[in-house]
Amino acid sequence: MPCIQTKVNVGISPEKEETLKKELGNAIALIPGKSDSWLMLTFEDNCRIAFQGNSQEPAAFVEVKIFGKAPDSAYEALTAEITKILGRELGVGAKRIYVKYEEVQHWGWNGGNF
Amino acid sequence: MPCIQTKVNVGISPEKEETLKKELGNAIALIPGKSDSWLMLTFEDNCRIAFQGNSQEPAAFVEVKIFGKAPDSAYEALTAEITKILGRELGVGAKRIYVKYEEVQHWGWNGGNF
Amino acid sequence: MPCIQTKVNVGISPEKEETLKKELGNAIALIPGKSDSWLMLTFEDNCRIAFQGNSQEPAAFVEVKIFGKAPDSAYEALTAEITKILGRELGVGAKRIYVKYEEVQHWGWNGGNF
After folding, report:
1. Any idea what the Cα angle at residue C98 is, between residues B49 and B28, rounded to 5°?
2. Which of B77, B80, B105, C58 is within CB 3.0–4.6 Å of C92 for a Cys-Cys bond?
3. Residue A62's pLDDT is what?
4. ipTM > 0.90?
């Protein structure tokens, strides 16, 4: 029951999206108990994003939402990995990427809550 | 002070949006103290959403944000109802729908906070 | 490490976006320890938003996400300021604006977490 939502101000081609799906699918396993088999991903490209007043250079806002909790070290590792992925695949600099985490207590799937 | 945000990877026609507005407006009353008279709804259709690596079949990510707290049973009932609505109106299968809840402590309206 | 995400059902011209960037950049300083130098902004215009069943009139859903916590009075002041800005620049009435706050414990930037 994790969800990673990626907003970037650059384009994401369908091919890049496939690559991102695979790589984020691997990355989520850095959170104990989470895997690609429960992962939902959303992608929004060409967003209007400004960071430090600058909306010209590539930038990303990534929201990682997980059911339950995880140790700080897992979030650290996931931030490092997501930052690498977005840098390599979309050319977003590490200093222009925020990764925000939300630990969720109530999460529904298949008509019921976990 | 609830808000239901619906992201789907299928289209939502203006007619369907009207239907969803009515049905979600009724559903929110499953949360004690909440009603359509304070409900904000946002709809995003044709989103890029992948679940379990699959972005072909219909899928939905729904975020329910409420001011304050509610009993687990209310969230259970709302998940069931939202899942039914999205299945019936948009053809999204229950196993492709996440409904995530956020209990909010600070919420502003009309220039001040509740 | 704050982020303000603005969704409105009216258009935001590039010129208005520049104005909003400056004004929200000033407003964030109402939260102790926060400033434009760490602020990320996202803008989504022409969104599908309904409030109290009405999707015709201008409406806005603003999410303020901050790393850590702030006193209630700071959130009060920021709600008042954001509401003024959206009214003046985009013509959204105060009674059609929600400003929702999220206090975040885990937040990454530059490949690591704060």
Report:
1. 65
2. C58
3. 98
4. yes
